[in-house]
Design goal:
Order of helices and strands: EEEEEEEEEEE
Helix content: under 10%
Radius of gyration: 14 Å
Structural class: mainly beta
Shape: elongated
Largest sheet: 7 strands, mixed
Mean pLDDT: 96
Strand content: over 45%
Number of helices: 0
Low-confidence stretches: none
Length: 119
């Protein structure tokens, strides 16, 4: 059984920073791409940032230059450093990972963490 556990959400004023973490645990042989998605009320879920096992990153245009995704392969953990936060960044942030277990390759999701940015 594989689990993704997120931490680091909360309430912050505009211009502030938050760091999200997502740790994968369980029967893991390897982890391919890891990423962060977000969903604001009334909107569709969108990709925020992703990082491959080799360290190649991809960002949504709306967060480029403000957010940084990174991963620690030894800890099976992905991070999202969010700086210069704006009220429009308010959403539930969920991590996502493509994980190879003993017998298969599946996509897993974390439970989500709320990020609220006040004006």
């Amino acid at each position: 059984q594989v689990q993704l556990v997120e931490s680091g959400g909360g309430l912050v004023q505009a211009g502030g920073s938050l760091r999200l973490s997502c740790a994968a645990s369980g029967s893991i042989a390897s982890i391919n791409t890891m990423g962060w998605y977000r969903q604001a009320p009334g909107k569709q879920r969108e990709l925020v940032a992703a990082v491959t096992s080799g360290g190649i990153t991809n960002y949504a245009d709306s967060v480029k230059g403000r957010f940084t995704i990174s991963r620690d392969n030894a800890k099976n953990t992905v991070y999202l450093q969010m700086n210069s936060l704006k009220p429009e960044d308010t959403a539930i942030y969920s991590c996502n990972a493509r994980i190879r277990g003993s017998y298969n390759l599946l996509t897993y999701w974390g439970q989500g963490t709320q990020v609220t940015v006040s004006a």
